[in-house]
TrEMBL record:
GO terms for biological process, alphabetical: methylation
Molecular function terms from GO: L-histidine N(alpha)-methyltransferase activity
Protein name as annotated: Histidine-specific methyltransferase SAM-dependent domain-containing protein
Species of the source: Methanosarcina acetivorans (strain ATCC 35395 / DSM 2834 / JCM 12185 / C2A)
UniProt keyword annotation of Signal present: no
Length: 343
């Protein structure tokens, strides 16, 4: 059981290569319940075909290069990464989106498999794209349809990892890509992954970082650049979409984003703070339900942590992971990490 309702595993009769974990509540019901509490958690921005299209559009936008830069970095380093990954591993990727990054990894793993394993030992690689949005799982499966991999898509929340792990073959390379790691509380996500991986599994994730600054001016410049990206028109529209979709007008509210300092076990961390601020009394209609917002109401949204490289390493250490290899961009703004459970 989790905050989004109890998950039940069910086979999709239409498509045998996809498993659906159905929550008791539809995305619309969840949106209604959240908005009634003046909350709009980020996962609700990604639901339905609208949410899938919005993310793909944002990911392609010039002003929002966060996940795209991480893809370029993966392309440039994939052969070095795969050197650390045994050829027999299954690939599980949670929050898979379009699955383009996973294709890059799979192509390289297949190449490695072909060169390293004699014909008699060949087993095809198993691939499990996972996302809360069924459209993304379909896209990710389609993305690799010409590759010789055994595929099973899973529609599920990462928070249901104990349930969804029953579907994959060990050992796994467990991936969280596209800066998705930074949308969770660090100790929550690392403990969840740690508890559900076995010895022999690997954990691979990426993050867009706050570069370590030498001077106050550099700190200011880094913060300005982060705010510029997150306050871009494209990202603002992405965040406003649910309210616009259900009947509010752009002049009824505005989107606010700040960079806040938050305390943690390892010291002060930098985190975005987002909200939708209601500017005039307005109504939202979701199915048969309506919610009345009043001028001055504030709807709290999700967040993204902006860690320094050192902070990520410190969290991995306290949560029981051993770093196998880190790929850090020259300007220290992007990182990819390969880790395993410490024995
Ligand atoms: C920032 S996008 C990244 C997509 C993709 N990995 C990439 O690199 O382009 C986050 C993805 O995570 C999915 N997602 C959001 N919350 C989730 C959750 N709780 N469990 C699983 N997937 C989730 C969204 O549907 C979306 O596809």
């Amino acid at each position: 059981m989790n905050s989004r309702g109890k998950a039940i595993l069910e086979q999709d009769p239409e498509q045998e290569e996809k498993i659906i974990t159905i929550s008791e509540k539809s995305p619309e019901e969840k949106l209604y319940e959240s908005l009634k509490k003046y909350e709009l958690p980020d996962y609700l921005l990604y639901t339905g075909s609208g949410g899938a299209n919005n993310w793909l559009k944002l990911d392609g936008a010039k002003m929002f290069p966060v996940a795209r830069q991480l893809k370029v970095m993966l392309e440039e380093n994939v052969s070095s990464i795969v050197r650390f990954i045994p050829a027999c591993m299954s690939l599980v990727s949670v929050g898979v989106g379009s699955g383009e990054k996973e294709r890059i990894l799979l192509e390289e793993l297949i190449k490695k498999n072909r060169t390293e394993k004699p014909a008699s030992e060949k087993v095809s690689i198993r691939y499990y794209p996972v996302d809360i949005n069924s459209h993304f799982v379909d896209l990710a499966l389609e993305e690799v349809k010409d590759l010789p991999v055994e595929k099973k898509g899973i529609v599920a929340f990462i928070e249901d990892m104990p349930l969804l792990k029953k579907h994959w073959h060990l050992p796994v390379l467990f991936c969280i890509l596209g800066n998705t790691f930074c949308n969770y509380e660090p100790e929550f996500i690392l403990q969840l992954v740690h508890e559900n991986l076995e010895q022999g599994d690997l954990f691979f994730f990426d993050a867009n970082l706050l570069p370590t600054q030498e001077s106050g001016e550099e700190t200011q410049a880094a913060r300005k650049s982060i705010l510029g990206t997150y306050a871009s028109r494209e990202n603002v529209l992405f965040n406003m979409y649910p309210l616009l979709q259900y009947g509010m007008a752009p002049e009824d509210f505005d989107f606010e984003i700040l960079l806040a300092q938050v305390d943690s076990r390892i010291g002060t961390l930098c985190r975005t703070r987002k909200s939708l601020n209601i500017l005039k009394d307005a109504e939202i209609r979701i199915g048969t339900e309506t919610i009345d917002f009043k001028e001055g109401d504030v709807i709290r949204m999700g967040f993204t942590y902006k860690y320094t490289y050192g902070q990520i390493l410190a969290f991995l250490d306290i949560c029981g992971f051993e770093l196998l290899k880190a790929f850090l961009s020259e300007d220290r703004t992007n990182v990819m990490i390969l880790a395993k459970k410490r024995i």
